């Protein structure tokens, strides 16, 4: 028996002349993920779907791979299928031998039986030269299920268990329920962004949403202390990036200290310390973006959630740099964000105790500010702004993961 993983995409099918570029990127991303799982399986693009050639690998191995692949952006749904090659089994000849199909359907029906549940068949015949039409084959296979298992109740529209048979000129695929993917666009198809990453729920979800729109996502985190390189892998922020990289692929995290700015700010006790700090973070991030050729900065801002996320303070932060600042969570409520965090396997990690840098900078932040006032405060009270930025960037550390595996941790000034 040969196996395949069949991969369907939705949004990519709507693309025009550049559709093949998006499909090529998704195929490459799937191949890289497959390799990271330790498999040397070929990934093929055929018409409106992709196939991962599992060959004779054990079914449980292929099913584990399906679960791992389901988080890759760009995939609508996928399934582990039993594959019958047309050339070998001659199904599409004048008198096709359908017994192997009936045997597999019977086996799958026995394995998946659930008392009191309903089933249905979804049979498609894309090659109209096949002599048995879809309706007749559905009836025949339904009889096979009834004769060889305890399935009895059929619900065509809302079945608990589906059995799929897809007959094409290349062969026949037989499988059970589909595993839903995240949809969207494949990573690396729309450009690179840099995300301001904190230890909470919001910014990791914001980063994932951008990745699901095809972006390469890197991260920058402002830390209250200097970390020993040997201990950095155990740091909460680093572990969040590692988890995200399992679906995003190669991902870079830049850890920078905010102590230089904090010390300069403490000397003056300015009332607008929080928004001044956020403008500083944007400028440092902008400098990093120039190095890595990122086109936009991403934050986990959610309108009205905290003092720094009022429209006035968002505007003041925007005016600190010319690079676009994207806020994919701007209209989300907290329940929606936590739901995404759970789905990404980040909830427990994000619940771990952590001192957010914005909370440390200011306990009573102003909710309204004007960029013109902030510019004057920066000019009058922070005359060594460029030096503070340079000192901060000089102490930056880079951490790189590739599908959950650590590539390196190093100080960027080495």
TrEMBL record:
Q: Per its UniProt entry, what is the enzyme's top EC class, as one word?
A: transferase
- In which broad location class does this protein mainly occur, judging by the first location in its UniProt entry? cytoplasm
Where on this chain does ATP bind?
A: 196-197, 221-222, 278, 300, 309
Q: Name one Pfam family in it.
A: ThiI_fer
- Keyword field contains RNA-binding: yes
Q: Does the keyword Lipid metabolism apply?
A: no
The source's superkingdom equals: Bacteria
Q: Which UniProt keywords apply?
A: ATP-binding, Cytoplasm, Nucleotide-binding, RNA-binding, Thiamine biosynthesis, Transferase, tRNA-binding
Subcellular localization is given as: Cytoplasm
Q: Catalysed reaction per UniProt?
A: [ThiS sulfur-carrier protein]-C-terminal Gly-Gly-AMP + S-sulfanyl-L-cysteinyl-[cysteine desulfurase] + AH2 = [ThiS sulfur-carrier protein]-C-terminal-Gly-aminoethanethioate + L-cysteinyl-[cysteine desulfurase] + A + AMP + 2 H(+); [ThiI sulfur-carrier protein]-S-sulfanyl-L-cysteine + a uridine in tRNA + 2 reduced [2Fe-2S]-[ferredoxin] + ATP + H(+) = [ThiI sulfur-carrier protein]-L-cysteine + a 4-thiouridine in tRNA + 2 oxidized [2Fe-2S]-[ferredoxin] + AMP + diphosphate
The enzyme's E.C. designation = 2.8.1.4
Name the pathway it acts in: Cofactor biosynthesis; thiamine diphosphate biosynthesis
Q: Name one GO molecular function term.
A: tRNA-uracil-4 sulfurtransferase activity
Q: Name the PANTHER family on file.
A: TRNA SULFURTRANSFERASE
Q: What does this protein do?
A: Catalyzes the ATP-dependent transfer of a sulfur to tRNA to produce 4-thiouridine in position 8 of tRNAs, which functions as a near-UV photosensor. Also catalyzes the transfer of sulfur to the sulfur carrier protein ThiS, forming ThiS-thiocarboxylate. This is a step in the synthesis of thiazole, in the thiamine biosynthesis pathway. The sulfur is donated as persulfide by IscS.
Say which family it is in: Belongs to the ThiI family.
**What's the name of the protein?**
Probable tRNA sulfurtransferase
């Amino acid at each position: 028996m040969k196996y395949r993983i069949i991969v369907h995409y939705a949004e990519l099918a709507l693309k025009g002349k550049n559709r093949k570029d998006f499909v090529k990127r998704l195929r490459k991303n799937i191949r890289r993920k497959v390799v990271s799982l330790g498999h040397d399986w070929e990934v093929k693009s055929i018409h409106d779907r992709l196939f991962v050639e599992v060959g004779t690998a054990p079914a449980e191995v292929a099913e584990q791979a399906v679960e791992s692949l389901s988080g890759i952006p760009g995939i609508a749904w996928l399934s582990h299928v039993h594959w019958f090659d047309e050339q070998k089994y001659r199904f599409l000849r004048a008198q096709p031998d359908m017994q192997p199909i009936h045997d597999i359907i019977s086996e799958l029906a026995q394995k998946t039986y659930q008392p009191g549940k309903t089933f249905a068949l979804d049979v498609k015949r894309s090659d109209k030269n096949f002599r048995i039409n879809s309706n007749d084959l559905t009836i025949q296979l339904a009889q096979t299920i009834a004769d060889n298992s305890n399935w009895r109740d059929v619900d065509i529209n809302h079945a608990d268990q589906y059995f799929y048979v897809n007959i094409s000129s290349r062969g026949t695929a037989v499988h059970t329920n589909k595993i839903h993917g995240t949809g969207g666009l494949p990573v690396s198809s729309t450009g690179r962004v840099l995300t301001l990453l904190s230890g909470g729920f919001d910014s990791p979800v914001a980063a994932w949403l951008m990745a699901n729109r095809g972006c390469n996502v890197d991260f920058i985190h402002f830390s209250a202390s200097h970390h020993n390189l040997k201990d950095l892998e155990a740091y909460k922020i680093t572990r969040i990036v590692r988890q995200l990289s399992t679906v995003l692929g190669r991902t870079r995290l830049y850890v920078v200290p905010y102590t230089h700015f904090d010390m300069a700010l403490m000397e003056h006790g300015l009332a607008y310390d929080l928004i001044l700090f956020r403008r500083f973070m944007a400028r440092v991030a902008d400098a990093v973006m120039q190095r890595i050729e990122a086109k936009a900065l991403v934050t986990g801002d959610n309108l009205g959630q905290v003092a720094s996320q009022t429209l006035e303070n968002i505007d003041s932060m925007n005016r600190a740099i010319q690079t676009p600042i994207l806020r994919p969570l701007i209209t989300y409520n907290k329940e929606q964000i936590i739901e995404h965090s759970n789905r990404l396997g980040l909830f427990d990690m994000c619940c771990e105790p952590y001192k957010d840098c914005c909370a440390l900078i200011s306990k009573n932040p102003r909710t309204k500010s004007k960029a013109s006032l902030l510019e004057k405060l920066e000019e009058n009270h922070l005359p060594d702004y460029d030096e503070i930025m340079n000192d901060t960037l000089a102490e930056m550390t880079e951490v790189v993961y590739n599908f959950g595996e650590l590539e390196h941790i190093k100080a960027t000034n080495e």
